[in-house]
Automatic annotation (TrEMBL):
<dbReference type="InterPro" id="IPR009061">
    <property type="entry name" value="DNA-bd_dom_put_sf"/>
</dbReference>
<dbReference type="InterPro" id="IPR000551">
    <property type="entry name" value="MerR-type_HTH_dom"/>
</dbReference>
<feature type="domain" description="HTH merR-type">
    <location>
        <begin position="1"/>
        <end position="62"/>
    </location>
</feature>
<dbReference type="InterPro" id="IPR047057">
    <property type="entry name" value="MerR_fam"/>
</dbReference>
<dbReference type="Pfam" id="PF00376">
    <property type="entry name" value="MerR"/>
</dbReference>
<protein>
    <submittedName>
        <fullName>MerR family transcriptional regulator</fullName>
    </submittedName>
</protein>
<keyword id="KW-0238">DNA-binding</keyword>
């Protein structure tokens, strides 16, 4: 039989047959005088074995080439691999469920998924900034930054605190060079007081070590905020540092 007939009988494609040849798990038969490969029933049996083992989950490159292989050992190894995949998929589904329940963005680190709802309800630009800053900090700061962000979000996710900061974010989103100085001062003071109340005894005295990437956080903020907003943020940071010192 030719490759097309073999593929049809086995329930695969001719391309699949060629792939089996390329990776060395199916022996190529010699060509006949007319230049075509002629396959026998042995090739069909081999393709059916390959198909069956692949359906069980064996990687093609790990398929036993003979019937005398240690099947129990291979099955035990495959079972352990599939169990690990199930665990990974179960954890992945739990993260997806948390993201859906909290309305969070799927691009956030999994450990922050349950606390990412803080940005929900904020002005779109502020919500985008919050999400992107979290993503940058978690990636650049590693586990230390992720733990700190998780603690911060857990404290800020209290309903009353979220409502207070939602109002602050809304006012902050509207300020520019035309905003009266009295409103800017009030916003700085209220933001600082709200942060001090929310952070409680959380230790923020040790700065995160972001190395050469530290300036990227400031650069990102500068691309999203106007000069007045950046000035207000700096004043809040200074007052907060003094209060927590």
């Amino acid at each position: 039989m030719r490759s097309g007939e073999l593929a049809e009988l086995a329930g695969v494609t001719v391309r699949t047959i060629r792939h089996y040849h390329q990776i060395g798990i199916l022996e190529e038969p010699p060509r006949s005088l007319n230049g075509y490969r002629e396959y026998g029933v042995g090739h069909l049996v081999r393709v059916l074995r390959i198909k069956r083992l692949a359906d069980l989950g064996f990687a093609l490159q790990d398929l036993p080439l003979d019937d005398d292989a240690d099947h129990d050992s291979r099955l035990a190894s495959l079972d352990a691999e599939l169990a690990a995949q199930i665990d990974r998929l179960t954890r992945q589904r739990a993260v997806i469920a948390a993201l859906r329940a909290g309305g969070a963005s799927p691009d956030l680190p999994p450990e922050l998924a349950t606390h990412a709802a803080l940005a929900v309800g904020l002005p779109p630009r502020m919500a985008k900034l919050e999400r992107e800053q979290v993503l940058l900090l978690a990636h650049l700061g590693g586990e230390e930054a992720s733990r700190l962000l998780e603690d911060l979000h857990e404290r800020l996710a209290e309903p009353a605190v979220t409502a207070a900061f939602g109002s602050i974010y809304e006012r902050f989103d509207l300020i520019d060079e035309s905003t009266p100085a009295v409103e800017l001062d009030r916003l700085v003071t209220e933001s600082t007081e709200a942060l001090v109340a929310a952070l409680g005894d959380l230790d923020l005295t040790t700065p995160l070590d972001l190395g050469s990437a530290e300036g990227l956080i400031d650069e990102h903020g500068a691309t999203q905020l106007n000069a007045t907003q950046l000035k207000v943020l700096n004043e809040i940071a200074e007052q907060l540092s003094q209060r927590l010192a």
